[in-house]
From TrEMBL, chain B:
Gene3D superfamilies referenced in this protein's UniProt entry, alphabetically: Vaccinia Virus protein VP39 (3.40.50.150)
Transmembrane segments: none
InterPro entries: Methionine_synth_MetW, SAM-dependent_MTases_sf
Protein name: Methionine biosynthesis protein MetW
CDD domains assigned to the protein according to its UniProt record, in alphabetical order: AdoMet_MTases (cd02440)
């Protein structure tokens, strides 16, 4: 979806971005009164291909367990929309897009992106699709941040909100991890001050290291131990070198290499930055409850026991604020040893909770 | 859920538990209600459907929370002993603690929270002063195990039993005014109000109290 020079995206950085475009996928059919639209918000390195094969990687959609025919977000009943975030690299305008002023890629001239910017861009898309009110907004991790932002910024346009494994503000620890990742990218000489596209280089090593570090934070010690333990990779004994002797090393190297094939390094800087800046309460006098005061939206918050990146305490803080705001809120902490990644994996308890919440909300919305 | 310590007696006509119907009668229509230890949401959905209340719940078990979600009830997975402190003052018209107080670690603190969060509190509990309990302990010299209290002493979730008289004393201590008090007999029927406290305490299987902060 393209937005011309007369339809700029007003960004928190104080810049009116124009022209701009947003890439999206839809599934299912919009009903006559346009009341069955569900918006899926993707996480840091996700994209709009939530329930179809990814055209870049050829891999299946990233949330087939949650979205599809007969799934909790049932594409037989709902009109499902998923859009690439602003600042991303899968078709929506981002730092790799061409700056009309220079005819060159934006690189670091692209304005710094925030979660509210991402949501504003999605709202413009929803407007264009002629949808007044979303039946449900669903997302995990950074997607969950967008869900909360949607509910805070457009309470009358969100009937139900399902934020999963997320927080209303990014923690100091998480900002720290992101900074390590960004520094790894910037330390790669091929990054060239962000102008690698102009100069025909790629900061692949830096981005791969950033991904390796981040990937550890998505797992849990238990999950790592179960999957890899201290097992050697294709060898019986240590080589007394810095080869990838251990399976976990080999796995992380693979994750890093696979990631740089599909992701733009500058997008990684921008999107991680957006998460760092996220703090809903700060925009409401330090009170998260104020952000949701009088909200008509019904919420269901889900966390995972072994998620140490977005721990249950973050979810509880959201729940307490919603309670204080007299909002309708449900909360489930799912028992899982898979860490933050659990929200993307086979977690029957999460599906049961999501299905119960969405089905009951659909009945209340008259679209059951 | 299967409530700790009680055998749910149901109304033949409606299929609803008798103690739930009694609690529902104490709640003004259209009010805001928090059910602490709401189980599978049976009482909350009764209150929503019959009294038009805006109901919320806290439930410790994931199965219970999921059952509530499927009924469209906004229920939070949590623990009465630790999570009530996070609720603001006067957030609800009624806070209900149904068959749960005896399973809390700090019944007095929980009761104080109920009276702070709600303008009124409704508490129901199994009466440990019932004659059969007394017979078990007094004559047989064994911890009571009845239909109503089916757990052994070593695996019971009920760690703070009280009698109707004990509870009345606790209400006095925390400064709770008693707007209504009902004892249910073995058949789940309310006992006559004119009966003296000692009769209630001996023959009442459950106590149900409507309390108000003084």
């Amino acid at each position: 979806m393209r937005f011309g020079p007369d339809e700029p995206l007003m960004m928190d950085a104080g810049i009116a971005l124009a022209p701009w475009q947003i890439a999206y996928q839809t599934y299912g059919t919009l009903n006559a009164d346009k009341s069955n639209a569900v918006l899926i918000c993707h996480a840091l390195t996700g994209d709009q291909h939530v329930a179809n094969d990814n055209p870049v990687t050829g891999k299946p959609g990233w949330w087939l367990t949650m979205v599809g025919p007969g799934r909790p977000v049932d594409t037989d009943r709902f009109f499902v929309i998923c859009a690439n975030v602003i600042g991303g690299c899968m078709g929506t305008t981002g730092p790799a897009s061409i700056n009309p002023a220079t005819g060159q890629p934006y690189a670091l001239d692209f304005p710094v992106v925030t979660i509210p910017d991402m949501v504003r861009a999605q709202a413009a898309l929803i407007d264009r699709l002629g949808i007044e009110k979303l039946f449900c907004v669903v997302g995990g991790s950074m997607g969950g941040m967008q869900v909360l932002q949607w509910a805070a910024a457009y309470p009358d346009r969100v009937f139900a909100a399902l934020p999963i494994a997320t927080a209303a503000r990014h923690s100091a620890q998480n900002i720290a991890f992101h900074e390590v990742g960004r520094q790894a990218v910037m330390a790669d000489p091929e990054w060239r001050g962000g102008r690698y596209l102009n100069e025909g280089t790629r900061p692949s090593k830096g981005l791969a290291v950033a991904r390796m570090g981040a990937h550890i934070t998505y797992l849990s010690e238990v999950a790592l131990h179960r999957k890899f333990g201290r097992n050697f990779q294709d060898r019986a004994a240590p080589t007394f070198s810095f080869d990838a002797d251990f399976q976990i090393e080999s796995y992380l190297r693979y994750q890093g290499i696979a990631f740089v094939e599909r992701f733009d390094a500058n997008s990684y800087l921008y999107v991680t930055r957006a998460m760092d800046y996220f703090d809903i309460a700060a925009e409401h006098g330090g009170s998260l409850a104020k952000a949701f005061k009088g909200t008509p939206t019904r919420f269901c918050v889900i966390s995972f026991t072994s998620d140490w990146l977005f721990p249950t305490s973050d979810s509880r803080a959201i729940v307490h604020a919603l309670n204080a705001a007299a909002a309708s809120v449900a909360f489930v902490e799912v028992e899982s040893d898979k860490g933050h990644d659990a929200f993307l994996l086979e977690e029957p308890e999460m599906f049961a909770a999501a299905r119960g919440f969405i089905d009951a909300a659909a009945r209340a919305r008259g679209i059951a | 859920m299967s409530l700790p310590g009680t055998l749910p007696l149901t109304d033949m006509a409606s299929g609803h538990r008798l103690d739930f119907l009694l609690v529902a009668d104490m709640v003004e229509p259209g009010s805001r209600v928090l059910d602490v230890g709401c189980g599978d949401g049976a009482l909350l959905s009764l209150l929503r459907d019959r009294r038009g209340v805006d109901g919320r719940g806290i439930e410790i078990s994931r199965e219970g929370v999921n059952a509530c979600l499927a009924k469209g009830l906004p229920v939070i997975q949590g623990d009465a002993d630790t999570d009530l402190a996070d609720y603001p003052d006067d957030a609800f018209d009624y806070v209900i603690l149904s068959q749960t107080i005896q399973a809390t670690r700090q019944p007095k603190v929980v009761l104080e929270h109920l009276l702070r969060i709600g303008r009124r509190a409704i508490v129901s509990f199994p009466n440990f002063g019932h004659w059969r309990v007394r017979v078990d302990l007094g004559l047989r010299g064994r911890m009571p195990m009845t239909e109503n209290l089916p757990y052994s002493w070593y695996d019971t979730p009920n760690i703070h039993f009280c009698t109707i008289r004990d509870f009345v004393e606790l209400c006095r201590e925390v400064g709770a005014g008693m707007e209504k008090a009902v004892a249910l007999n073995a058949g789940g029927q309310p006992m006559r109000v004119t009966l003296p406290w000692w009769v209630w305490n001996l023959f009442g299987e459950q106590g149900v109290f409507l309390l108000k902060r003084r």
